[in-house]
Predict the structure.
Amino acid sequence: MAIPEGIAPTEAHVPFDMADAATALIDATGTVVGWTTAAERLLGYPAPEVLKRPGTMLLAAPEDAAKAVSIAEQCGEQGGWGGLLEVRHQSGHRLAVGLRVSPVTGLGGGTCWLISAIDVATIPTWAVSGSLLQAFLTRSPIGMAVLSPDLRYVWMNDTLERYGGVPRGERLGRRMADSLPGLDTEALEEKMRQVLETGVPVIDYEYRGWTMAEPHQEHAYSTSFFRLDNADGHPVGVCYMGIDVTDRWRARERLALLSEASEHIGSTLDVMRTAQELAEFAVPRLADFVTVDLLDSVLRGEEPSTQRTRFLPQFRRAGQASIHEGCPESIAAPGDAVAISPASPFACSFLEGEAILDPELDASLGAWTGDDPARTQKVREFGMRSLMVVPICARGTILGVASFVRTGHPAPFEPDDLVLAEELVTRAALCVDNARRYSREHTAALALQRSLLPHALSGGQALEVASRYLPTDARNGVGGDWFDVIPLSGARVALVVGDVVGHGITAAATMGRLRTAVHTLADMDLPPEELLAHLDDLVIRLTEEESAQEGVGAAVLGATCLYAVYDPVTRRCTMARAGHPTPAVVDPGGAVSYPPLPAGPPLGLGSLPFESAELELPTGSLIALFTDGLIETCDQDIDVGLARLSNALAQPGLPLEELCSTVVDTLLTRPQSDDVALLLARTNALGTGHVVSWDLPSDPAVVANARSLALHQLAEWGLEELVMTTELIVSELVTNAIRHGTGPIRLRLIRHDVLICEVADTSSTSPRLRHARTTDEGGRGLFLVAQMTRRWGTRYTEGGKLIWAEQDLPDAV
């Protein structure tokens, strides 16, 4: 059937290469108004059965009606359509045909549709190069364009038109820079000139930019260029094909960003620093303003609760960063407590453990700010427009919340941004948790160290003391060296310094055990050599018991110790050492010497006995006890270290604290290789005004005389308030010495920080405190002494034993 008179095909869309095609004409209502013989041969319908009936009767399935409407709409927009479609033959079977749909103008001015169809099974080779090839190029998902030698558009397909967001009519005949200002057109044109000159194609050239299709969203494209030549081999243009590889680019960028984050986040084992690194890394890579709020318990190094509750704990600002200097958007400074509204999504993210994305913050401003006027003002002042909140979760425990905000960035956050934020926070969360665990262990180690070392050193009136403790790991503060000053009976003072093998918490724990053992042995008033012998036995036993524990036995075995006892009454100092360096002694004039103290073996060897030496020290002498870390380094001999120590100590006029600093600064001029302990003690003497003694016969009649002598001395010292208790103490101790001892008796009173009463005899029998029964006539003496004194005890001397008792002095004295 011929096309009705007065109906003309649209000029640009006359069917070509389809002269033998089946043709039909459908009006604007979808009614078939034209039907050719070729159409009857193809589909089997004679014209009377088709004309004036709906065109949908020819479709293979009723659901294809929507596709027919879509084809009609595309024809109206683009001037035609070509492609494949299934239709129904009169016999009922389906038939795949190649269609060409073109709009035409009817007699009344309305639009009709001229449809040409060919059985795809019979399409000749020439048809492929015709309409179907054109349809392929036009509908290809790959953007394609042809540019003239002067790089002006002469043809482009639908995909490239869609990529650019600029209509085809506004781009044909123009340069790329005229219509695509968001791309680096100079670089692209340079590539095309290179292709035109050399004929060598450029494959997979990637670039980024924005187009009019999405002016606020950067995309990435992969483009290939090749030259078009005529039959004579002369270039007539350049063709380029491009695809949008934004997803691939973003995935690659995300991997690179996460790799970079691993280098920048978690550089230290500090919780606050790790949180700050997360915030600084995300700005401006992901957001314009980032805050990291952690649980207060996390910052204290405590184990956060794993139980989910509906109550919000205390949060503190741990880190924040902004594109603006000083973070003016923030309502809190690092370390400040942060108030979070229970109804806000911040709270929801923490309580539910789920990340939240709010692309348009204006729509939910009240919920985000929790009706906080200060926060609301900041949001509006800085134009906060898009926000993400991600819980900081590690090992199944939520440690806090990280917030990401965009202010200056024109594009809102997208789901891909949320995925990236979650990845960053996940990596940072592990670092935060590791830092928290380290802080907890570090705090425990420091608490152990502080509990094991003396909190305050006091030599009373006998010694002025100062010290320095410098572990190898100065930041952690845990080492195995130790020192102590222990008050003894009779106004005497013990000085101790020791060195445990190794460093760290194991060495510190071992040091604490030895220090406790020395305290216990010192309370027994043992001579220095006997104390070291008992300590050696203890170390041998500990080594045997803990041989299976790696590191513990090694820390105990080979420990060294120096123990010295100074008596301010006699000005004598008795020392013994177990593998430890000899102390330095500085006389009042500044002369430094190292006394020939017998060298005992390190603790735990049990091979040789320990020996002591006794020195008489003038008042104002200085004793310097130290560990080998002070004088030994990897590049100098110990004699060099001792010489440098002598030079540093030869300054008798310096106060002890200043002298301590001078010694450390002089000898430790480079990083330490071992722990260092230094203990300085300057001696004082108790003169005749503080000590008085009497030799008494072993006669019961002398008890009254002893009381009289003691009371007279108390009157001279102005200690009348202690007359009653002292009279009882003297009576009981002298009576015990006469009753249970032998030989002469010696009574001594010492006015020191306390009032000391001592009674010595030649017996080695130790007195025993017991509770007398109501029917006993005696046995209450030592019990009364214990009740009325500060402390009391017994120590053995070369000629026997000595019982002593201390009383606190009156406040006014």
